[in-house]
Amino acid sequence: MVIIDDHKVFSRGLELLLNSEPSQRVEVKATSANAAEAAWLVERHRAAVALVDLQMPPPGGLAAIRAIKERSPETAVIALTGSEELESGLAALRAGVDGYIVKSADPEQLIPPILSVAAGMVVMPDWLRDRLVAEVERPRPDLSHLSTEELSILSMVCEGSDSAQIAQAIHVSERTAKRMLAALLRHMRVTNRIQAAILAAQAGLVGSSDAAD
After folding, report:
1. Full-model pTM
2. How many Å separate Cα 19 from the centre of its chain?
3. Which of 43, 133, 142, 145 is the most buried (most CB within 10 A)?
4. Is 82 helix (H, G, I), strand (E, B) or coil?
């Protein structure tokens, strides 16, 4: 994991917390206060997860997220923000984030959601999930082209299942489940699980209270 945040005291505290407990299975390989080097840092360390603060000096957190997703699309990216603004959430979602976390004064509170994203889940605060589903203006999506198997996987994504749980449910290996999930996202023309869950809610396949938990 890499941390991109210009608040060095915060980054250092989170790094110490994550690296002090081996059982958490997330190790911070590097930190940086420079958004411009985020994609390079992720690529260099082959990071599975990147935590990026949205409020950073130019080129800014959103640009860092886009660069990471372009150069290392398999890396799960978590947007970190100090505000609860819908526009920030929408912008981060469009950039391709896999998680959206509101920064707490206590870095310890960020560990559970970080571990969840590392395990293949999506993380989004309830207020953002509900407002996204209610306020994003777009035609009702047509998902009738999805197969029964794809709809089943999509349902599990909306329930918050990780790759291992999906694999167990459909009786395939975790690697196969990840490939099937990637194919589903391509078929839906979305870049991550959050977008898939929101489309499912807008299409009426799941209730808005169930999407992207």
Report:
1. 0.69
2. 21
3. 133
4. coil
